[in-house]
Amino acid sequence: MTQPASRRYFLKNAFAGVTACSLAPRLWAQVQGANDAIRVAVVGLNGRGAGHISEFKKIPGVRIVALCDVDLKVLENRAKGLEGVEKYQDIRKLLENKDIDAISIATTNHWHSLATIWACQAGKDVYVEKPCSHNVFEGRKCVEAARKYNRIVQHGTQKRASGASKLAAIVKSGRYGKLLVSKGYCCKPRWSIGFKPEEPPPETLDFDIWLGPAPKQPFHRNLVHYNWHWFWDFGNGDIGNQGVHEMDVARWALGGTLPISVVSLGGRYVDGPEFKDQGQTPNQLVSIFDFGGTLLLFETRGLVGKLPEYKPKVANELYFEEGVLRDGKFFPNGKDVGEPVTGIDVETVEGGIFRNFINCVRSRNQKALAADILEGHLSSALCHLGNISYRLAKAMPFEKPKDFGDDKIVGDSIMTMLENTRAIGVDPAKTTLWVGPKLKFDPKTEKFVDNPAANQLLTRNYRAPFVVPEKV
Description:
By secondary structure, this protein is of the alpha/beta class. It has helices spanning 7-22, 27-32, 48-57, 72-79, 91-95, 109-121, 136-148, 165-173, 207-211, 243-254, 352-363, 373-391, 408-423, 452-456, and strands at residues 38-43, 62-68, 86-88, 102-105, 125-128, 153-155, 179-187, 261-267, 284-290, 295-301, 313-320, 323-326, 329-332, 339-340, 394-396, 433-435, 439-442, 447-448. The protein folds into 2 domains: 7-160, Rossmann fold (3-Layer(aba) Sandwich); 163-344 and 373-456, Dihydrodipicolinate Reductase, domain 2 (2-Layer Sandwich), CATH 3.30.360.10.
């Protein structure tokens, strides 16, 4: 099994690569030739990484030259059919390879930022899956690393390359008056994961590298390879999984960066005799973000797909002074029939988000990225802020809290969450609603106002040598 390189050894080699690759942004095309193949490595191969391999294989002038995964079984399976591809179990060894131009990251969430920063330091361009960060601090460090080392860093919120700009264009047009609420839905089936016992990790898995920045802890099979999403040390719940896409669209339409306050409420509820499982993150959550006159409202409901009245829903809606935009139609106030929206110019991105990334690697034009790392950081940060309010929540009766004002749109979301939870058999008399504090936030400093407990959750304690640095 590959032995991890020391942090000092890695940085020495990484900065050697930076010297060659980042002295001038335009040197890449001059040295290698604008028509030469771009050599890509894919890191994290079990789930979304397979999609990365498929997408890059479609793009002319791109060669997948290396694969990396902490699980040798997964690594060998993905390498089949890729002639001459180099295989790595340790990303630090991969980044020492100066023949790699760009890396594509599809690891667990808690590895996204560190892999991005190390890659930038090593002179590689980066495509990083959503969310680009596991916490707010990390996302900002990714932006700083991209700018400092003149790297092209694309974020995997691919809706920015598929026509989602139409919502933002509609708002900007002013056609339907002021935008009151930009709402996103992430309602996918997220039911009980049960309990898995602690056991030794598989021989093919380097579990120490898999843990990376997270605290040392025992292995169990609810971590590898997917259910890590529902544990705070590794994932961010579904708001930070599928939800990042809809959060990004909601923020894009609203036109803001980060809010002046946030409050969340919800819980983790499952059907079954004990109504609990091993997961930690909420599967029912409503988050309200105040952007100073306009709200961003987000529903993350995972108790869907079993009852006909509570179906999966992944969507965005816009509530204007004059009505509601949903499902591509505008419904004027008081009318049940929607009218198609026409006459709105939409920005298009040729070839999708992966091809856009490769085009920008060639041109060295960061501004042409469909989903630049800054946009990825801001939308990921919103998901983290919603989770922070929830993590500081207190148990309250399972009913709509009285101090949530009279906003009907917000109230409807809360009641839908409560009714959805009751419908699966959760007894309100025997459970609680976890209601977070309303946290004031400063978008400029990216810190909470006068709340040390909340600010602690903007970052984490890192396990050496897997440390996201204060200075990149």
